[in-house]
Specification:
alpha/beta, 324 residues
């Protein structure tokens, strides 16, 4: 009889704690409000917006979730996380009146049955803190002259390059520990590595590369367009890129379970420096056992460092990562 009472008491206490934890999670979710954005020009799909996604790691920011036409809870979708979220969908709202045309291209690929069904989570940058959040933190710590590099970077663009300590590790924690659990619980998506991808350009390419290396159990593929291997501002005597290649040699995940896509253009004051990095990128991945099935590094002759250049080839990495 006594044992029965003890067991009953234990079950009641366990149930009470469980209910409290569920309630706590519900309250946490209730603090994040997503609504359908009406005042936006989309060619297809809908955009759910969270105006200020809270974080204990970094500054809050806008997070948009693009859902394709006929999105249904009866289906499951892969998830693509993209940086610089404010530049992806509507050129009338961007600073340079250009966009990635994600909704147009993603919709076409799904409608034609080329890619699996997927949604896009668009993570807005925070302006002057973009570089601090996108510059890979562990490679930065390997720079023996990081203080002088940091100071020279601050001088660029009237001090608006880093604007504070490197925050990329915290930025990735924000994505993996805060945004992804919300997406997984609120949308009809696959949660496994094989259906979770990340993409960005320039510094966004660097942080995408860094993300899959830091969280190989979370991300199955990364698309890194016009990756800024110079780290800051490209120069003839570059003394930064070696830390990225050293980091890759130590941290590239298995080619059996991951895919990497890189590309680069040849025109503009930034893009013209990128072809020189291609041989070393190729060599690092080949040494780790990657081949054309799980690694691409493509050259686009004449392509510039702009959204209008990236949207012209966006279908290529999308198909590479998300092909049926």
């Amino acid at each position: 009889m006594l044992n029965f009472k003890l067991i009953a008491s234990f079950l009641i206490i366990t149930l009470f704690i469980s209910c409290k934890q569920d309630k706590k999670n519900a309250i946490s979710n209730n603090k994040i409000h997503a609504y359908q954005l009406k005042d936006i020009q989309l060619s297809s799909g809908t955009l759910q917006r969270i105006d200020s996604f809270p974080s204990k790691y970094i500054r809050s920011r806008t997070v948009d979730i693009w859902l394709p036409d006929n999105y249904s809870e009866a289906k499951k979708y892969a998830v693509l996380y993209m940086h610089d979220g404010q530049m992806l969908f509507d050129s009338t709202t961007t600073w340079n009146k250009q966009e990635w045309k994600v909704d147009e291209i993603a919709s076409r690929l799904m409608q034609e049955g080329i890619t699996r069904n997927f949604i896009v989570v668009a993570l807005s940058n925070t302006g002057i803190h973009r570089q601090s959040e996108y510059f890979p933190e562990k490679p930065f710590q390997k720079l023996v002259n990081k203080d002088s590099i940091f100071k020279s970077a601050q001088l660029f663009n009237q001090g608006n390059f880093f604007n504070g300590p490197i925050q990329s590790d915290n930025y990735l924690k924000f994505i993996v520990n805060e945004v992804k659990p919300f997406i997984d619980s609120q949308f009809s998506v696959y949660t496994n590595r094989e259906n979770t991808f990340i993409m960005g350009s320039s510094m966004g390419g660097l942080i995408s590369m860094y993300a899959i290396c830091e969280y190989p159990d979370v991300f199955g593929g990364a698309a890194c367009l016009s990756t800024n291997f110079s780290g800051i501002v490209p120069e003839e005597n570059d003394d930064i890129s070696h830390v990225f290649f050293d980091y890759l040699q130590e941290n590239i995940p298995s080619p059996k379970t991951h895919k990497f896509y890189f590309d680069y253009g040849t025109t503009s004051t930034i893009e013209e420096y990128y072809p020189r990095y291609a041989p070393e990128v190729n060599a690092v991945f080949a040494k780790k056992g990657y081949d054309t099935k799980n690694f691409k590094n493509l050259k686009f002759e004449g392509a510039e460092h702009t959204e209008n250049s990236w949207n012209k080839r966006l279908d290529i990495p999308l198909v590479y990562l998300l092909k049926k």
